[in-house]
UniProtKB/TrEMBL annotation:
Protein name per Swiss-Prot or TrEMBL: Diguanylate cyclase/phosphodiesterase with PAS/PAC and GAF sensor(S)
Gene source species: mine drainage metagenome
Amino acid sequence: DCAKEIGRIHFLTGVGNEILLRAKSFCVKVLKDNLDQSIPVLKDLTHILVAAEWRLHEDIEMQISSGVATMEQYRSILASPLPPKGTLWTDARALEIRMLGQLPGLQAVLFARPDSRGVFMIEEYGGTSGGESGPLFYGPGTGIGH
């Protein structure tokens, strides 16, 4: 689970597969260098190195898979069909905000429009923190109301 979450974070922050694989190689090199300097029996060192390399390989593989799955979630939003003709704007907007709010890495989705005075009013929100995020934008000087 940890590798999946880290993979998702790496994808969302732009850490690509090449960097992950270079990091793995670096970790293996550091481990090998440290093991070479230790005294235990050579057979034990080989087992430790093989086990560590395998664990790193599995971890990186899970991170890459998680990044690909996260990318697919974002792409599926872009590839989703438009609402059927005749769908009410409020229904279509609610659906889109709900879909965006379920994407990994997005805690809040806010929809605001200016009122007659030009003050943006939050009309709808989504995401796990959408309800708590709105009030952060209210107040003097923000140009957003509720």
